[in-house]
Amino acid sequence: MAVPAQNRQGATAPTAQDELVRMPLLQHLEELRRRIIRSLLWLSVAVAVSWFWADDLLQFLARPIYKYLPPGQKLAVLSVTDPFFIYFKTALLAGVFIACPLILWEAWQFIAPGLYEKERRWVGPFVALGWIFFLGGGAFAFWVAFPFSVQVLLQMAASFQPVITADRYYSFLLTVVIGLGLMFELPLVLTLLARVGLVSAGFLMRNFRWAILIIVIAAAVITPTGDAINLSIFSIPTIGLYLLGVLGAAIMGKRRKAAAAARESAAEA
Questions:
Q1: What's the rounded Cα separation, in Å, for the pair 86 and 199?
Q2: Which range among 44-58, 148-162, 192-206 shows the weakest confidence by mean pLDDT?
Q3: 12 three-state secondary structure
Q4: 144 contact partners, CB below 8 Å, separation of at least 6
Q5: Residue 124 DSSP SS3
Q6: What is the DSSP letter of 76?
Q7: How far is CA 47 from its chain centroid?
Q8: Contact residues for 73 (Cβ-Cβ < 8 A; gap 6+)
Q9: Nearest C-alpha neighbor of 242 from the set 216, 266, 223, 221
């Protein structure tokens, strides 16, 4: 059995199996289309399954608002079609979290051709960490950020008689929970971008102030209030996740340099 070539530092040079898979542009686009369709199918199945528990989910998701409403008051509907769309939004929210691992699997299968053979084995950690970050963002949104936003908004309406519609409430909840869930994927995204060579830790730190600006703008889009406290609740954890992504990019940068050095040593040999 042949022994892989090594450089002077003892690093193993990439073997033939470590070479990247070359795909033409049209094949990349076709693969992207196929992965998107498969992801939508997984999401559709998850939404259909979640529909059977939509009523229980509705009661659970309404807890943050019922704490601030008068006893006995319920969320209002303005149209006979509103209940259907509310049930759909609730099932969609649950379906996104259920289908998240499968969607991440499809995303990994799309980017896998741009990785070396040994890196394609990271699919397990990628899917697990992606799901954990997404769940963490959703949990933070539902138990911390969203209730605080509801409290602030209702305090602003103290001089009025609030008539809160179920459709607007669940739409707001869907935006906040899924929005923060996606924002919590930032470390994973930055690490992957660094691995394929699109960004580096130095680049991310040089543009840190622009990253803060983008994060604050995204937080302002997710939350309807413009007060500093709400923006801080949404943006400060995301800035911390950005720095975590910078750390991941730095680790990936060292791996890329080590792999490049091994290839150069193998070519010289």
A1: 40
A2: 148-162
A3: strand
A4: 233
A5: helix
A6: B
A7: 18
A8: none
A9: 216
Q: Return the structure tokens found at 227.
A: 């007060």
Q: How many whole angstroms separate alpha carbon 128 and alpha carbon 78?
A: 41
- The answer to whether 138 and 95 are in contact (CB under 8 A) is no
What pLDDT score was predicted for residue 105?
92
Rounded distance between C-alpha atoms, residue 154 and residue 104, angstroms: 37
d(CA 180, CA 97): 12
- CB 257, CB 263: distance < 8 Å: no
**Would you state the pLDDT for residue 8?**
41
Question: Look-up: residue for tokens 């943050």?
Answer: 64
What is the four-CA torsion angle of 95, 96, 99, 103, rounded to 10 degrees?
Answer: 150
Count of Cβ atoms closer than 10 Å to residue 180 Cβ:
28
Task: Return the C-alpha torsion angle 94, 95, 98, 99, nearest 10.
Answer: -150
Give residue 49's identity as a one-letter amino acid code: V
Cross-strand partners of 6: 12
Prediction pTM value: 0.81
pLDDT digits over 1-16, tens only? 444 444 444 444 444 4
Please list, in sequence order, all residues whose beta carbon lies within 8 angstroms of the beta carbon of residue 166, skipping any fewer than 6 positions away. Answer: 75, 76, 77, 82, 83, 86
Q: Tell me the two tokens of residue 75.
A: 């969320």
- Residues 217 and 174: beta-carbon distance below 8 Å: no
Instruction: State whether residue 256 is helix, strand or coil.
Output: helix
